[in-house]
Structure prediction request, 72 residues.
Amino acid sequence: MLSFGGRVIVEKDGRNALLDVSFVTREGWFMDGVGETEFRTLRRKKMILSRDGGDYRITRKGVEALQIARRR
Prediction:
């Protein structure tokens, strides 16, 4: 989903603590069953990145990981 133009929208409070995570397709549909745990994993592995305070998008490393996984 992220490799096809999707994004991750993150809501934070005043202390910069995570409130809500939403995975959105490029068509604007929200994905159920994907949440904070998956977001933290992708961010920790540097597979998604936020630029200039915007939504999180897939990184080059994330695309490469998908290509390797698809070959298996």
Summary: The longest helix spans residues 60-71.
